Description:
Layout: H1 14-28, H2 34-41, H3 50-56, H4 63-72, H5 77-91, H6 95-105, H7 112-118, H8 120-123, H9 127-138, H10 145-151, H11 158-170, E1 174-176, E2 181-183, H12 192-216, H13 233-256
Antiparallel strand pairs: 1-2
Helix pairs in contact: 4-5, 5-6, 9-11, 10-11
Amino acid sequence: MQTQRPNIFQFLDFRDFMRNYFDHARLEEEGFSLRTFLSKVSHSLSSSGLLSAVLKGTRNLSPAMRLKFAKVMGLKEKEAQYFHLLVQFNQAKSMEEKNHLFQQLSRFRESKAKTVSEGQYGLYSKWYYLVVWCFFGLDTRQKNPHLIAKKISPHISAVQVEEAIAKLLQLKLIRRTANGYAPTENHVTTEKEVQDMIANHHHKEFIQMAGQMIDEIPPGRRQYNTLVFSISKESFEIVKERMATFQEELREILDRDSREAMICTLSMQLYPNLQEESPKVGPE
């Protein structure tokens, strides 16, 4: 029984698509192997470790290789265009470049990027969207953007509040009430693809905000701690796990709390202070 070839428009990572394509090809094409696939791309690549390195993310695909890979995989014109953009998106270094390429991907009507772009991706593009959403959890009787803006710290404009309200209504995360707005959900969860795409941008915004707030908020109304330590790789992973566990415990505390009076941000960062050699990532 024939299986359906994976639909590239349902992927936000070209490596995932290629793995699925190879799994499909092994079932449908007699004698298929990664070696035979590479030999069709270029005779000089039949014994190369390029493909394995690309799938692991330690090598990039050059524009010339993207064309050859798309042709050998039998991608039609529109599929090939999406593949080229997807490779560039996954290999992009800056958030600005990623944003630009993601918007290009979202123009394909049938793509997963369009669904995500119209939904959760937009929610995390500005830090104050989430803060305004939380505000309506405290006050469902306020709808004046100027008054809302005056209550939010760091300062945002009434125009930004209006922008946030429009986005939250679009995502159906708030609903109109007689006098204002009310949240429709207690928590916001994101798909893995969204988390991966926006993590750097989202974290940078809140880290920058934390630096600003240390001067604006009195010590009695904030808690800042820094701990520098040496640790084994095994214990490092345990610490990461405990941080994730604490976040889940915190969610349970918040779920039980029915006397909301504040909106707070908690940021935790864990990173090494020694350089670690890593495999070079470059085009082939």
